[in-house]
Amino acid sequence: MPFPSTRMRRLRRTETLRGLIRETELSPAHLIQPVFVVAGEEVREEVGSMPGIERFSISELVAEATEIATAGIGAILLFGVPADKDESGSGAYDDEGIVQMAVRALKEAHPELTVITDVCLCEYTSHGHCGFVRGGEVDNDLTVELLAKTAISHAEAGADAVAPSDMMDGRVGVIRHQLDEEGHAGVPIVAYSAKYASAFYGPFREAAESAPEFGDRRGYQLDPANAEEAIREAKLDLGEGADMLMVKPATPYLDVVRRVKEETAAPVAAYHVSGEYSMLKAAAANGWIDERAAVIETLTSIRRAGADAIVTYYAKEAASWLR
Ligand code: PBG
């Protein structure tokens, strides 16, 4: 038996050789930092279940944005936690709402920072569901109208892109139409197209105070067992005018990231969600994993699966490691 002439190890011998054949690139340019803005003055409060992540009042967020930009991150995804909530989530589409005011402050201080706003009602409704509840269910079409109002008020405030995360049917089309009518034809829609009813959102719901008071979100978010359905959602959103498609969470759904990319060829974002972040932080805090290596490996795997952009709570920290 002749020894194999192909030896895969030859090109693994030095860092330079490995660098020459590395297939996947991970850089701060691919990362989006999610941030939470809360009402009040001089507020900086750590989220218990998300070590390293704080909720900021507006001026503190503006200061934090300086750090994010200095680390090399060019885009943030903004979530608002309002002082008051009501049945119809009216704080979401209030021109003087928490997100609208934060966007104005951020864009004034950091015109070069790309501000993407989360468009959803769950942080603003008293019951914590992502829309208007009627007869124990979220009313799709009424909710879509409220989401479009929300998206427009974000665009008016200066948002660079809007990201509907509610999973209502038809919302991308209505948001696109109304943005265009109101003079915001240039504002892209980053659609959470394949958003699963996931257990990994737990820590976020603490941060955003958005846990549903009754029931769950399985009536509108995707069943974790389904991938074909995710592709249908992605194609529908594209047809309605989505500019970028999002898959969420990321690591348990890498197959979906890959399939959405291959079957649509559209720009794809993956959301490495709160629970994925907290698991890494918890294991690292216990000394069970090498945090830096595990995070870079995780983010690289999401890029390798086909994501163009990654939304991750690790963005700022990872950017400093990638320098
Ligand atoms: C809801 C929304 C959620 C997340 C982003 N937008 C939570 C949910 O559907 O309950 C989760 C993000 C995360 O876990 O990091 N609009």
Instruction: Give the amount of beta strand, in percent.
Output: 15-25%
Report the average pLDDT across residues: 96
Instruction: Describe the largest sheet.
Output: 10 strands, mixed
Q: Which range best describes the helical content: under 10%, 10-25%, 25-40%, 40-55%, 55-70% or over 70%?
A: 25-40%
Instruction: Give the low-confidence spans.
Output: none
What compounds sit in this structure? ligand PBG
CATH topology: TIM Barrel
Structure description:
The structure is a single chain. Helices cover 39% and strands 17% of the residues. The chain has 323 residues and is an alpha/beta fold. It has a single domain, classed as Aldolase class I (TIM Barrel), CATH 3.20.20.70. Strands 1, 2, 3, 4, 5, 8, 9, 10, 11 and 12 form a ten-stranded mixed beta sheet that branches. A two-stranded antiparallel sheet has the order 6-7. Strand 10, helix 8 and strand 11 form a beta-alpha-beta unit. Helix 3 packs parallel to helix 4. It is globular and about 75 Å long. Ligand PBG binds next to helix 6.
